[in-house]
Prior knowledge:
Elements: H1 8-16, E1 22-23, H2 34-38, H3 43-50, H4 63-70, E2 81-84, H5 86-98, E3 104-109, H6 113-120, E4 124-129, H7 140-146, E5 151-157, H8 169-182, E6 185-189, H9 206-209, E7 214-218, E8 231-234, H10 238-248, H11 257-268, H12 270-294, E9 299-300, E10 309-310, E11 313-314, H13 320-331, E12 333-334, E13 336-337, E14 353-356, H14 362-376
Parallel strand pairs: 1-12, 3-4, 3-5, 5-6, 6-7
Antiparallel strand pairs: 2-8, 7-8, 9-11, 10-14, 13-14
Helix pairs in contact: 3-11, 4-11, 5-6, 5-10, 12-14
Amino acid sequence: xTALPDFRLETYxxxxxxxxxxxxxxxxxxxxxxxxLLALADDEDRHAFENLPLSxxxxxxxxxxxxxIAATYAHADPDDVLCFAGAEEALYLASHVLLGPDDxxxxxxxxxxxxxxxxLSLCEVTGVALDPDRDWALDLDEVAAAIRPDTxxxxxxxxxxxxxxxxxxxxxxxxxxxxxxxxxxxxxxxVYRGLERDPARTLPQAADLSERALSLNVTSKALGLPGxxxxxxxxxxxxxxxxxxxxxxxxxxCNSAPSEVLARIALKARETILDRNRALIAHNLPMxxxxxxxFADHFExxxxxxxxxxxxxxxxxxxxxxxxxxxxxxxxxLLLPASIYRSDLTPTPTDRFxxxxxxxxxxxxxxxxxxxxxxxx
Length: 377
C-alpha cells in the first residue's frame, strides 16, 4: 500500500558503522575467523569446503545444511527448511507470500524496521507495543484485540531486538495457540535464541509448536557469523514453504555454495559457539552494570533477558538524539538512538538507545564512553 521508506538503521550504519572507533551498538555476537570456524569442522565438511565446486546450489538450500538446521528443532524434517540469503530476504519474501492488499497483519513494536515497513507496504497493519513501564511486557489481550477477521499474520521477535526481552514460555505457547485458533500464521523471529542469560527461559521454537507457524533464524546473530549471509525459515506447512521457494526464484535463486558449507559447520558446532558467546556476554555484563551504576543519574539500565542488545533510557535534558550524535562525533562511540526504532503504528519511547554487549573490546568502548561522560555530563 506504500513504497518502502529508507531503512533508518542501515542508513545510520552506512555513515558510522565502519568509521566509529567503538562500535557499542552491534546486534551480533562476537564473530570468528574462517580458520577458527574450519577448525570446528569434521573431516567430511572440511573436505567438502576445500573441494567445493563453485556452481549453483539448490534453491531450498544445501541438503546437508537443511539436515543440520532441522536437527536443531524438535519436530522438523529437512523438507521443512528453506534457506535464504540472511534473515532479511526471508522476512521480505514471507511478507509478500503471506500478505496481500485485502489482508491485515499484527506486528510488535518497537521492532526491526522491516518487520513493520514490509507488511505496511502490502496491507493494513496494527501495532501492539511492548510496555516499557512493565519490563517490556507483552499483553496477550492486546494482541487478541488487534486481530481482525482478515488478519493473516502475527509477527513477533523473542529474544527481542532492541530490548532483550524474553516473555514467559506459557505466554509464548498461548500466543501460538491464539494464532492457530484463528487460522493465523505466527511469524516468529528467533535469531537470538540460544543467548538467554538463564537457559531455563529459552522459548520453544514456534515451528515446533504449530504446523502453521514460521520460525525465522540466521547464522548472523547468536552464532556471530553475519558474513555468511545464511538464514532460514522452518515451517511444517509444505505448501506454504513451496510458495516461499518459488518467490525466492525472483530474488537470490540460491545461496552461496561456500557459505552453505560453512553454515552447516557452524550449525553442527552450534553448542560450542553458543557456549563461547554466552560466556563472553557473561564476562561483559558486569562492566556494563558498573558503567551504568557510575552514571545512574543519566541512565536507566536493564540487562537483557536474552540476546546481546539492550535498550537503556537516557535521562539527559538534551535528548537521546543529540546525545548519541555528540557521542559518536566527539568520542567515536556508536550507539543507536530511539529514532531508529520509531514506529508508525504505536507510540514508541523517544528516550532510549540500543547498546550491544556481545563483542570483545567492550572495555575500550566503555572506557571512551565513560571518559566522555565525565567531561561532558
